[in-house]
Known about the structure:
The complex is a heterodimer. Helix content of chain A is about 35%, strand content about 30%. Chain A is of the alpha/beta class. The longest helix of chain A is centred in the last third of the chain and has 16 residues, at about 175-190. The interface of A and B includes residues 74, 89, 102 and 107 of A.
Amino acid sequence: MIEINNLEKYYSTKEVKTTALNKVSFKVYKGDFVAIMGPSGCGKSTLLNVLGMIDIPDGGNYIFNGNDVTNYNENQRADIRKDALGFIFQNFNLIDQLTVFENVELPLIYLGIKKGERKERVHKILEKMELMHRRKHFSKQLSGGQQQRVAIARAVINNPKLILADEPTGNLDSSTGSEVMELLMELNNQGTTIVMVTHSEHDAKYAHKIIRMLDGKKVFENRLFTQ
Amino acid sequence: MIYYYLKIAFRTLLQNKKLATINIFGLAIGLAATVLIVLYVSVEFSYDTFHTKADNIYRVESDFYEGDVLTDAWPSASFGYGPAIKEHIAGVKNFARLDIGQTEQIVGYKDEYIRENTVTYADTTFFELFDFKLLEGDRLTMLDNPNTVVISQKVVSKFFKGESAMGKVMTFATKEGIKKCEVTGVIDDFPENSHIKFDYFISYSSLPAWKQNFWYWHTAYTYVQLDKHTDPKTVEKAFPAVAEKYKTKEALKSKIWGISLVPLKDIHLNKWKESERETKGNKITLYALSFIAVIILIIAWSNYVNISIAQSYERITEIAIKKVQGVKKKKLFNQFMFESLLMNVLALILAVVLIVIALSEISNLVDLKLFFLPLKQFRFWAIAMLVFGICVFLSGFYPAFILSSLKPGLLLKGKLRVGKSKIAPLSFLVVLQLGLSLFLIIGTLTIYKQIKFMKTQPLGLNVNQKMILKFPVGTDNMYHKLESFSKELKSRTDVENVSLSGAVPGMDIPIAAANKLKSATDDKNRLFKMLPVDYHYLDTYKINLIAGRFFDEDFGGEKQKIVINKSALKLLEIKNAEEAIGKEVLLEEQSIPFIIVGVTENWHQQGLNNGYTPVIFLLNGVIEWIPANYITISLSTNKIDDFVDITKKIWNTHFKKTSFDYFFGDSFYNEQYIRDKNDGKMLTFFTLLALLVTCMGLYALAALIGNKRTKEVGVRKALGAKTSELVILLSKDFLKLVLIAFLIVLPVAWYLVAEWLKNFAFHISIPWHLFILSGIIILTITLLTVSFQSYRAAIADPVKSLKEE
Lengths: 227, 805
């Protein structure tokens, strides 16, 4: 599903040029659950952003679903994000001004789906996430675990082929963290590919494959299970 | 999608009620001010535009030249210009004259007599040229016969109360006698936006025959209608040659008699000239007001832009998430533009409310009926929509553009810092706001200083404690009756003096004559104002004599004597006052020379926007066509009401059938400044609005910046910074902006103030200390506004701010 070859990414300020990604290559297959690990500043979030087409690499190439998307323009990348990707963040990134229902509904609005169908789909997923009773609440009225469940619901509402999760349990206590991981695993079992950045060895155990990074380089790749 | 935009916009508004209020109120004030100013300005520009022939009608105004130098310019022409232009110059279709020489007459019907100042003699063509609405009568023929009059609806309700006025006979009395006229037409009352406003149009043929085409009396407003393809310049050029045939008398013979054809639509806003009847509009004020409208709008927009950008910090998640979800830039841009539209619509609604509240104030300044006239015009709405569109675009574009182009990767990392990044509020907008406000403050203070200067300047005479009566209707022995009337008054202990004269201070002396020293050549004929007075005028008004003496009964034989003022001295080319005594002067149309017996100091006959007037005094009645018109009573009592009652009683015993009309010297004099004062008031009002909007913006900005820097403040506090140091730290940036604004505005304001002051013949020097004062005012306002917010940020609990994130 994903193939990256010699990806490079630099950040430069006036004084220094920092290498965030240094010739990183790997493949992610359909239905995979990959955990990217490494210390702070090793480039794992940058890698995730590049995979999520939020960031553009400075070198190497990126093949998504058989298409070379390295040189896609902003609009083309936005289309892929809209149709095929779902994002989950450490700090949830829910929109404060919107209710739970509206946050989850948002991607569907921009996909141009009709109101009736939107309502049906959002209700279905909120039920699954056990958030129906909270649907009219604003994000600030929810606990961290609930907020992350809303974020997950939002990430999967468009049935993405790939979910990109950036330390999804980083702001949660361990038991809520486990709940979230169970949810992700369930999604993976239903066929969604997942790439997750994490610090937590515990969370990494849910993955099929672990990629370890240091100073922008991939230093280790280990497949835990084969599908 | 719109519903969704609406929802998120309203929730953002509610989340930041204070900012939303500031934003909407600022925009509303800006819009309300603009609408008011646009209405006012369009009324002023709509004068005389409602006549179908307006584009081809011009007023003939007289210009006198000596060589290339324009020596005199009047808005009127002589009675002879109109017919001569039509006869000798090609391309002139028609003309019509209005005599303004005797606009004040006592009008009577049955037993009612009212002194009116709206009487004119009109050519029969007048109502062909102009489309004033006719209610009764035949437009083309109603002024054909002598002793006929066309009156306005207002007069009908005043004199005829329900009766038909047609065919009735009214009397018109002046000092010269009484005329009876039959009403042959009724016109609707004049629209407010007409520079011509009369209530009685007596047929032109009612004037004495000698006057009807007389070339030496320039008291006829003359309007010509040109053929469509005639260039008014060609008519102007052809006129002096035509005039040569007619200017056969000695007076002004050496001058070139020229004309300017002033387009009808331009008359109202052209510069005021002597013997102009209407209160003219002031183009400078209109431009200034329009400029202020733009300034206030810019300030309000700047607020919106700055607040939106500063506030966007709180919307980064929203923007980032949408981007991550594949929402394209264009969609986000649309969303923010939509929010701008929404804010502007809300502001517009509020603006309408503000205008309604302000209506009673406005009605003191202008006629409301007229004020809302533009609302019926398509053009007004087109302009309004355009301005509103620009408003939405300008306030929405920059924030929408910036916000929609942010990179989602950075947003999610929280790497965007307000302060140095491109989402920092735009300092230049703040400088712009401060600069414009500063400019308005300087402008307002200067105007007030100038008005105060004009009011307090020694006038060279004393207009206080003067009750001025208008002359009675002419009857047999009028002068005799006047004399006994004044004698009776003078015998009273509360009367200091009584004087009869042709004009009083504060008005244009109506008659000018071409005179010269007897020893001078004919080309030295110059125009002087001729002021007929009695022996007491100088004492009554306390005008200083600098040489010789004033008229004195004891000398006897004063009829061939004149007294001149300093300004006249200069015009006669006499070097000093002493030298003038005994010199002989030839007055226009007089064969025997007059001898100068005294010279007075100059005084301000009219407001200080005019220069000193060259005046020649002569005794009342010496020259028949230079009559006296006013009785000035100098009082020594403060019980004005009682005094007026008593005077009226005395008046009625001497003059029957004449209305008793009076005014007071000081208030009459100050009426000249009403326009300036109103302009000043308006400018102040809008300046305050501009300041208010600026302050609102500063306040909001300071609050937002305070919020953004809470962490910095927390760290500094933890490291031991004092509250006062933090307040200074947070306010410092704004002070820098004030300084920059001051330095930019200073030269511009200096230049404009100097230019404006040039409009006044007597003016203050450039008030540099007002510049400093304005700087201090704006600095203080900024400091107060900003430091309040900075203080709040500085006293916040550091632990709290450090724990966040």
